[in-house]
């Protein structure tokens, strides 16, 4: 007899709106509200046409955080009861976000469910998240996440096979009879293999092996921050490319990321920064919880700003064999990301796209053959090899450049600035601000910015003065499908091209996070080595004054500065 399908009555929740990247809430929200996870999983599966489900493959994986295993069992039970035919799950549930994207494409799946809250902390008091990706391997576009949200707001019941239990530790296929449907096939796969195979086709592994373990090898330090990327780093960089075992640290995924924020920036990856300062390592990198973000450091902790990182990869793109084969179809960055990539696009005569924050906006451009390489200031870098940003890919991209140019990270960046000029960039994050205060601040600022007299106005700090050229709330029309995304961030652009940007985060789980971004271009070779914080201080001061951020939120300083 097959597994029995039960229809369970439920009440809809009003707050299951996916943000920049999936639904993220405190673990306690998932645990304490009855059927909270079940409702959202049912809402996701409901967007797959019933007729399609009996031939459909869904990929499931996560970053190993607390509550992931429970969520995977629920996904299996709910997918079975909704007639999904085939599930592909990473062993023990482990699969990085880029690897899920890779496996969706490889298996020609209808989509995938990723259990992660990415860079947010985990554990019983941390965050959990559920994200849906489509058949291209990319995050569901806004039209689809809105549909999921609409379904969730009206959900009256979900279908589940409560008796069905799957062993996710054993690689191989398990088949389950399900009442009134074809048997469900659950396939547990190695977490790393398909992804490793893909990277072998993108990079020159022989050259990377020489760089990491040959006679004149460099020393690297890779910090997985107890996130999902650990097994990938171990297998690919240590075992296959020969980097010593101790060059990779914190490589065992932990449910609470060892109590830290798995967020690769100068604040939360301070251990790596300190380890690099000693000068023992030539190259360092850290990753976030789900392995899609990366931070790159050179010797002595030389910091590569993510906006510069994608620009440098673009300028050295021929170091990567993949692009020699595919050519470079176009470049893209999210709006708050600095204009460093624009300078490379201009010099190399490549098309450049400016999209709203969030990787989902790059997918259409890639599918349409318009985009090869893209990045975000938030430590996201990637290409059209998959449809997610890819932390380890970015590291191998940088190592490919080092192998080709035989120079240090610092030399490569300084040379880049000499050639293209430098975009000084900084981001201030104010985390867990009172939501009402944050919303009011943004609203008031928008009102100020939209006064006709604001354009042409001179804003000053000390002896520095900037004239407002453009003031708007960024809106984006997708060049491929024409869809419009409004309210993507307040921009004040000055006559010299410098920009101040304010937006509210869409990935936080408590209160509001205000992000302030500053971007200012300098082409005078004598001025490009200044400290960005010193260089940008007047613009920061102007931003704080014009927004009255401190007065309106009561916050005297940011939580994180990048
Ligand atoms: C942040 C970043 C954004 C990134 C998103 C998901 O969003 O700013 O660039 O795409 O996180 O990254 P927000 O809305 O909080 O600014 V991940 O690695 O957390 O999935
Ligand atoms: Co992430």
Please, could you describe this protein's structure?
There is one protein chain. The protein folds into three domains: 6-191, Alpha-D-Glucose-1,6-Bisphosphate, subunit A, domain 3 (Alpha-D-Glucose-1,6-Bisphosphate, Chain A, domain 3, 3-Layer(aba) Sandwich); 195-420, Alpha-D-Glucose-1,6-Bisphosphate, subunit A, domain 3 (Alpha-D-Glucose-1,6-Bisphosphate, Chain A, domain 3); 422-561, Alpha-D-phosphohexomutase, C-terminal domain (TATA-Binding Protein), CATH 3.30.310.50. Helix content is 34%, strand content 25%. It is globular and about 80 Å long. It starts with 5 loop residues before the first strand and ends with a strand. Cobalt (II) ion binds at residues 97, 118-119, 288, 290, 292-293. Residues 1-20 are annotated as: Disordered. Belongs to the phosphohexose mutase family. Residues 16-156, 194-299, 307-420 form the Alpha-D-phosphohexomutase alpha/beta/alpha domain.
Q: Helix and strand layout, with pairings?
A:
Blueprint: E1 6-9, E2 23-26, H1 27-32, H2 36-46, H3 50-53, E3 57-62, H4 68-81, E4 86-94, H5 97-107, E5 111-115, E6 127-134, H6 142-154, E7 157-160, E8 172-176, E9 184-189, H7 193-202, H8 205-213, E10 220-223, H9 230-240, E11 248-249, H10 270-277, E12 283-287, E13 294-298, E14 303-304, H11 306-315, H12 321-326, E15 331-334, H13 340-347, E16 352-355, H14 363-367, E17 373-376, E18 380-383, H15 391-405, H16 409-420, E19 422-433, H17 435-450, E20 458-461, E21 464-473, E22 476-477, E23 484-485, E24 490-494, E25 499-504, E26 512-522, H18 532-547, H19 549-553, E27 560-561
The structure holds alpha-D-glucose-1-phosphate-6-vanadate and cobalt (II) ion (CO).
């Amino acid at each position: 007899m097959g597994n029995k399908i039960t229809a369970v009555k439920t009440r809809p929740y009003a707050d299951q709106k996916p943000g920049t990247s999936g639904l993220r809430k405190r673990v306690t929200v998932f645990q304490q509200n009855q059927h909270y996870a079940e409702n959202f999983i049912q809402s996701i599966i409901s967007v797959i046409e019933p007729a399609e489900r009996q031939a459909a493959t869904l990929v499931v994986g996560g970053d190993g955080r607390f509550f992931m295993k429970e969520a995977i069992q629920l996904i299996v039970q709910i997918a079975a009861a909704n007639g999904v035919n085939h599930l592909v799950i990473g062993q023990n549930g482990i699969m990085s976000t880029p690897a899920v994207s890779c496996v969706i494409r490889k298996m020609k799946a209808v989509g995938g469910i990723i259990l992660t809250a990415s860079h947010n902390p985990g554990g019983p008091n941390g965050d959990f998240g559920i994200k849906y990706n489509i058949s291209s391997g990319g995050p569901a576009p806004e039209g689809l996440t809105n549909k999921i949200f609409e379904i969730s707001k009206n959900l009256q019941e979900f279908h589940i096979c409560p008796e069905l239990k799957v062993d996710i530790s054993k690689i191989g296929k398990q088949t389950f009879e399900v009442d009134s449907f074809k048997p469900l096939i659950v396939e547990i796969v190695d977490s790393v293999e398909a992804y490793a195979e893909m990277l072998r086709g993108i990079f020159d592994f022989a050259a990377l092996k020489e760089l990491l373990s040959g006679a004149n090898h460099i020393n690297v330090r890779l910090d997985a921050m107890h996130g999902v990327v650990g097994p990938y780093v171990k297998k690919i960089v240590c075992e296959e490319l020969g980097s010593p075992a101790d060059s990779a640290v914190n490589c065992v995924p932990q449910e609470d990321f060892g109590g830290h924020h798995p967020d690769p920036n100068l604040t939360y990856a301070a251990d790596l920064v300190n380890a690099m300062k000693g000068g023992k390592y030539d190259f360092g990198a850290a990753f976030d919880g789900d392995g899609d973000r990366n931070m790159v450091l050179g010797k002595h902790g030389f910091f590569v700003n993510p906006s510069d990182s994608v620009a440098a990869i673009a300028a050295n793109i021929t170091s990567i064999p993949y692009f020699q084969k595919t050519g470079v179809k176009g470049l893209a960055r999210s709006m708050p990301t600095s204009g460093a990539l624009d300078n490379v696009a201009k010099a190399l005569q490549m098309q450049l796209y400016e999209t709203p924050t969030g990787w989902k906006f790059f997918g259409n451009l890639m599918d349409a053959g318009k985009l090869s390489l893209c990045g975000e200031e938030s430590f996201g870098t990637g290409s059209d090899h998959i449809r997610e940003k890819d932390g380890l890919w970015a590291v191998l991209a940088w190592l490919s450049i080092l192998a080709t140019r035989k120079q240090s990270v610092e030399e490569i960046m300084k040379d880049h600035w000499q050639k293209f000029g430098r975009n000084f960039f900084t981001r201030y994050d104010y985390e867990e601000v009172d939501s009402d205060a944050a919303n009011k601040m943004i609203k008031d600022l928008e009102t100020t910015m939209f006064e006709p007299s604001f354009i042409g106005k001179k804003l000053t700090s000390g002896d520095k003065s900037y004239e407002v050229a453009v003031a708007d709330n960024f809106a984006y029309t997708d060049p491929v499908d024409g869809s419009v995304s409004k309210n993507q961030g307040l921009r004040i652009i000055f006559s010299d091209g410098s920009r101040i940007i304010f937006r509210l985060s869409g990935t936080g789980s408590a209160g509001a996070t205000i992000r302030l971004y500053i971007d200012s271009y300098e082409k005078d070779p004598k001025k490009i080595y200044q400290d960005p914080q010193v260089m940008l201080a007047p613009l920061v001061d102007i931003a704080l004054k014009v927004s009255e951020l401190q007065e309106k939120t009561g916050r005297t300083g940011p939580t994180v500065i990048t």
